[in-house]
Amino acid sequence: MKKKLLVLVLSAVMAVGMMSGCGAKSDTSDTKAKTAESSSAKEEETEEQTECELEDGTYTAEFKTDSGMFHVNEANDGKGTLTVKDGKMTIHVSLVSKKIVNLFEGTSEDAQKDGAELLEPTTDTVTYSDGATEEVYGFDIPVPELDKEFDVALLGKKRSLV
What we know:
Keywords: Signal. This is Major membrane immunogen, membrane-anchored lipoprotein. The protein is mainly beta. The protein is 15% helix and 39% strand. The protein has one domain. Strands 1, 2, 3, 4, 5, 6, 7, 8, 9 and 10 form a 10-stranded antiparallel sheet that branches. The N terminus is likely disordered.
């Protein structure tokens, strides 16, 4: 009887924990793209991209967010592809689904202003460790400066900026 009660209590605790994990919501998704040597990011309140400290080329970079909804696909182990060309940096990340239809480089308030340019998705095919494949959306996100976080607002299928 005690074992059944313990199993029931643990199941309830796990269910509550799983439900609360998706409940966190913020107006923007702060993201951090990290290279092996340093972080890539955007200065607050600036539209200009500064010159990059890395040579032109392609790098594997870590991409972290504080959002439960917006993160890199598990097949990519939290990493994206950082491309540096002519001193400008862009990180390509494959997401977990096709539910995020656009991104905006900045806050959700700025994304709603006239003339806001939304980032369009690409269709990526990811391969999981078990060999299964899936088509998901990916995005090329401008990264103007190393070692600083930056804001990215997302537009989901329900058409609201978060």
